[in-house]
Here is the input.
Amino acid sequence: MRDLSAGPRVLLRRLRELMAEPLEPQERLDQIVRQIASNMVAEVCSVYVLRSDGVLELYATEGLNREAVHLSQLKMGQGLVGTIAASAQPLNLSDAQAHPAFAYLPETGEEIYHSFLGVPILRTGRALGVLVVQNKASRTYRDDEVEALETTAMVMAEMVASGDLKKITRPGLELDLSRPVSIDGASFGEGIGLGYVVLHEPRIVVTNLLNEDSEHELQRLAEALGSLRISIDDMLSRRDVSMEGEHRAVLETYRMFAHDRGWVRKLEEAIRNGLTAEAAVERVQSETKARMMRLTDPYLRERMHDFDDLANRLLRQLTGYGAKMSAKDFPDDAIIVARAMGAAELLDYPRQNVRGLVLEDGAVTSHVVIVARAMGVPIVGQAAGVVALAENGDAIIIDGDDGKVHLRPVQDLQNAYGDKVRFRARRQAQFRALRDVETKTQDGLPISLQMNAGLLVDLPHLPESGAAGIGLFRTELQFMIASTMPKMEEQEAFYRQVLKQAGGKPVTFRTLDIGGDKVVPYFRATEEENPALGWRAIRLSLDRPGLLRTQLRAMLRAAAGNELKLMLPMVTEVSELRDVRALLQKEIERQSKLGEQLPRKLQFGAMLEVPALLWQLDELMAEVDFVSVGSNDLFQFSMAVDRGNARVSDRFDVLGKPFLRILRDIARAGLRNETPVTLCGEMAGKPLCAMALFGIGFRAVSMSPISIGPVKAMLLQLDAGKLAEQLNAALDDHADVTASLRPMLTEFAAKNGIPV
Ligand code: PEP
Ligand code: MG
Here is the structure.
């Protein structure tokens, strides 16, 4: 009986020799198709390569009319070849001309060949071309022949990807590998980023394709699979993982896949056909990827992603490869491209070189996105397929405003974005010029513009933006990006560092605001049906006093000899503040007993986020030194709209009468009680909203640092007294309570030359 694996093995060995010979690319291709045809006993073997204009061009043929080379062309999806490229799947036909997609190309003289086998030339799931064999006699190719041609196509993929074919590509045309691609994603962080791709998980380039000894490779595969399975079991048995539902589910899927017979059989088959173990994994992975790109069912896509991740792990096992790009190759303008990544991983990159982040997955609220926003770089999420389409070092533009990614952009697009970036830079320069101008409205009201922060990467923005201080320091971010609960000493060192870098400007630390959408991996509460209304923030802190006391102690120690400003999130009743004060008092006493230095001054505040506090305003203000309105949550709870649910979050306007009236009541209560009131939700950073806030009596707001300039430019032109008159009249008008005041405010700004 014929050894089925001998044929492909001989062919692959011959191809390897051809790849190494010093031949001109056309000559090399010609010899390759000749070898394939003779090895597969086919009368015809042809290679079509996909150009960037979506046309498949005949690059070499054995058997068809040679004059047709570089002339015969088929569009993606056109004819059998175009169908194969578009579907990324092989076609095996005993009577090609009977196939509905068959397109007759007279110059090739192919009408006499009946049977047809074509396979896509795949690289990371993308079709780069098509490899075809044909015979006169009507026959169906055996599975092992299909398999052999697919393996051969892998070698062709390397040749296309190596750039070897550039020399024989007509001037003005490009191959698909360098094709510009635009991807529509979602805007996760504003701004424009121009730079070069850095793949977060570097693609493992398998250079050793063909094996010398199949048995040895099968052995290597078995060993790698063995260690992969053990490592997954290991992860599953770790206690911290077994606590976590979602993570555990992913690992269990991995374990199932790692034992999947079909998958393993495919890998073994590819090795028997002459590939090394790593090339076999890559080959099967490429097919899976191609399938994944065509799937529309999100669940199935997710499972395919899992397979893909697993294949990457296996490749790393087999090649020992996976090191990050070395520092010297790291571009000055790096755009990090990842399927998903952890926040801490992003912080590992040289910060000054990171110009943007692109994620295939992830949500706006994911930690890495929070950190990237803190770094002030543009972010595009939900960019489907970007990892497979990008290569390290590719030019890339990301548009965080519109949620778009442009890979290998054409010159015109580069120019257009260059203009946009310059325009933004000019505006930033104008804002910077305002930095040292006194923050007063045109009618002389002093306003305090502060910034929100949560990580050390935020701190340099304080002097850059000219903010008066940090009005909201979200301490939970340190907890969210850590893999274990930060110890008291770590917290203390962190707060000390924050105060030091703030250089004497006031910092308002908010105690832990976890729960709700803010998940801390090592602190997992039970599932809640309504987490936003659940066990979170101050509620959790009061039930776990140890946690809160540790944090308070860290704050007291870090601010020794300085001013400490702290506030509590999600307060519902004034009594909660009393309870926290009692704990704080205990900590203060403990520190004094130990002879430790205490803060020089202590300010105790509350966030106003729960509507119930609106009917306790005077009691609240008697209890605290200041109040800070968390308009994100206060709006969510007042209007009963989930702030994270895009279908409802924009349904009502923060500039509608109900919410502005609520805010005005708070500002008035502040005046009455002589209690400073600030507002630190997202609305403070929008010039038009900030204008409204100053109109209803707010004199201090805190926002992301990037908004300080635009808000300041607005208020310098604002006559707050004049606005207050008109705005109060509109708010007191009961004729139409549902009307938004946005049009009125926009008109006021336009009439008075206020930039909003
Ligand atoms: C708010 O709710 O407005 C707020 C500032 O807090 P966070 O966004 O952290 O919930
Ligand atoms: Mg809040």
